[in-house]
Specification:
This protein has 2 helices and 9 strands; from the N terminus they run ββββαβββββα. The protein is an alpha+beta fold. The N and C termini lie far apart (35 Å).
């Protein structure tokens, strides 16, 4: 399938109100080595929500549901969810794209080299 220029990312929260972040591989074109939400490009014929669900599964091995739309910035869509099944481990990560993962509380963000706008995006999300 051919990628489009539309991207979909997801803030996934656990029961401790922490969000899942992935550390981007050093060979990534966009923001290598920085921490970001899981997600990626939609393919031709796919909705933004379908892309978010597929990309999260490909990158982490978990399955998400009950996505809520948060914002659109040009062709970048942000969703949030509190509903997922499965467990993220180093073995379930797509190591071609991401080298590590962490469940992070808002107050802990300063310890991570995050992509631009991630903190701003989290402030938009009200639980």
């Amino acid at each position: 399938m051919e990628d489009t220029d539309v991207t979909a990312i997801v803030a996934i929260y656990n029961e401790s109100d922490q969000v899942l972040l992935l550390k981007r591989a050093e060979n990534c074109e966009w923001e290598p080595g920085k921490w970001s939400f899981p997600g990626g490009h939609a393919v031709v014929g796919e909705t933004e929500e379908e892309a978010a669900i597929r990309e999260v599964n490909e990158e982490t091995g978990i399955t998400i549901a009950e996505l809520e739309f948060v914002r659109r910035r040009k062709k970048n869509y942000l969703f949030k969810t509190f509903t997922y099944s499965g467990i993220v481990t180093k073995e379930t990560l797509d190591l071609c794209e991401n080298t590590d993962f962490a469940w992070v509380g808002f107050e802990e963000l300063k310890k991570y080299n995050i992509v631009p706008s991630l903190k701003q995006d989290l402030m938009l999300i009200k639980r």
